Amino acid sequence: MGNTGVESNATLTETYRETSPRKKRRGAFFIFAIAWLVLIASGVAGAKWYSERIQNNVTSDLERQTSAQIALMQQDYDARLTKLEAGYKEQMAQMEGKIQALNELLTFTKDNMDTKTDNSNKLYTQLAEVKKQLNELKKSLDVLK
Question: According to the lineage, what is the superkingdom (predicted)?
Fold first, then answer.
């Protein structure tokens, strides 16, 4: 009978060791560590997803704002160019009118020429200056186009 008591103590000790609190703690720690790793990984994945979403939103906002500013600048440029072109056309029309008037005056002066050649020379000089200004305006208009 003494042997049976020792054997039963040994069996109880082995059973106790198998279900000891240390093994239970190890199992609980292992589950706890896995849970923390899953939480950390999901937090990292969530942060990455959120930062990509914010980056995409910022990028699309910047693209939209940039295209709007470019459109405004293009409209402003077109308006200024149209205004300048209209101004040059108006000035050219005025200069052509002045040239026509000087040509008529010159023709009249030639027809009525006596000893007034000095006046005729002045008119030719003025006509040459007007033509020079007209050529400069045409060059400026060509540069704008």
Answer: Bacteria
- Ranges in the chain, pLDDT < 70: 1-23, 112-120, 145
The DSSP line for 22-81 is HHHHHHHHHHHHHHHHHHHHHHHHHHHHHHHHHHHHHHHHHHHHHHHHHHHHHHHHHHHH
- Which residues lie closer than 8 Å to 133 by C-beta, 6 or more apart? 95
Give CA–CA dist 132/130, Å, rounded. Answer: 5
CA distance to 4, 66, 107, per residue, from 117 (Å)? 156, 66, 13
Contact 144, 88 (CB under 8 A): yes
Say which DSSP state 136 is in: H
DSSP string spanning 73-107?
HHHHHHHHHHHHHHHHHHHHHHHHHHHHHHHHHHH
Contacts of 144 (CB under 8 A, 6+ apart): 81, 84, 85, 88
